[in-house]
Amino acid sequence: MLQNFLTVGQQVLIIFILIAVGFICGKTKLIKEDGAQCITNIVLYAVTPCLMIEAFQREFDPSMLFNLAIVVIAAFAVHIISILIAKLAIHDKDKSRETVLRFSVIFSNCGFMCLPLEEALLGSEGVFYGGAFVAVFNIMVWTYGLVAMSGDKKQLSIKKLALNPGIMGVLIGLTFFLLSVKLPDIVMAPISLLSDLNTPLPMLVIGYYLYKSSIKDALCDKKSYLAIALRLVVIPILSLAILYLCGIRGTLLLSTVIAASAPVAATTTMFATKFNKSVAVSVNLVSLSTIFSIITMSAIVGFAQTIS
Fold first, then answer.
1. Domain extents for the chain?
2. How many CB atoms lie within 10 A of CB 149?
3. How far apart are CA 127 and CA 119, in angstroms?
4. Cα separations (Å) of 31 from 24, 198, 203, 212, 271?
5. Which of 9, 28, 151, 213 shows a CA-CA span of 20 to 30 A to 298?
């Protein structure tokens, strides 16, 4: 339990150093509004697809494919349960705030927060299954999440879905895995370098908007605390209980629980920025939930390791 706490704590500290850099860049005007928008687009349309392709770069294994299917089903179940909980529990007169609050409950920071943690605790196999959860996250966030945040069902066209960068990255990566396609180093090198930006770039944007937001307002926002409690405590524990009762154990259980127990997704701020929703609220949710996750993730993941 102590080792888990230290591992998560180290990851969170790294994240907050990056957020601090973004904060300083905002304060010194090195990042401005248009710059934050550009970084957001780079993350959504270039970095995320590369992350997916890199996660699936491994030799095909039938047993891993079966386990991958289990994780995919579990990931969809976690997201569907989260959607139901968000709709039942989160209500606000300000529809922009309500949208951001619900989005924050549903989507976790499974991409940049969980993959490093899964690698530290579970090794390369954990990263592989964590990548499957991230793949489902991308499918959900670019379908349900896109419509929910934009408020426009027309955003979800067949053409846009087919050309969606997040989903394209998933499909390309999965195809390479199924066919055991090993990309040459000259191709993988830039893909890996771009996927490595999945952590620092979103954190710089969050730091910039944290500079523009009011910490006092964040600490006084009761509904934000409710959303964070649902994201960090209710959904992870419920997910752990359901998975355990279904007989899922070991790496499959732990990798899914780690992803489900992550703080509010940085994508919340990315999408809130893109669709002009309550950006300040999204920044507060990401920042506060990441602080609290040092305790909640350590406890929940540690308990999951004990029973698995």
1. 2-307
2. 26
3. 6
4. 9, 18, 12, 11, 18
5. 213
Identify the H or E element spanning 85.
helix 62-89
Residue entry with tokens 């989260």: 82
Q: Which residue has the tokens 């910490």?
A: 215
Please identify, in words, the CATH class of the domain defined by 2-307. mainly alpha
Predicted structure pTM score: 0.84
For residue 59 the two structure tokens come to 């030799």
Q: How many CB atoms lie within 10 A of CB 181?
A: 13
Range 26-33, long-range pairs (CB < 8 A, 24+ positions): 26/207, 26/208, 26/209, 26/210, 26/211, 26/212, 27/211, 31/204, 31/205, 31/208
Alpha carbon distance 303, 260 (integer Å): 14
* Dihedral over alpha carbons 92, 97, 103, 104 (to 10 degrees): -100
What are the pLDDT digits (tens) for 229-250? 999 999 999 999 999 999 898 8
pLDDT digits (tens, 9 = 90+) for 130-189: 888 988 998 898 889 988 998 877 777 667 667 777 778 888 988 998 888 899 999 999
DSSP letter for 183, please. Answer: -
| pLDDT at 4 exceeding the cut of 70 | no
The percent of residues above 90 in pLDDT, for the chain, comes to 32
Residue 215 has pLDDT above 70, yes or no: no
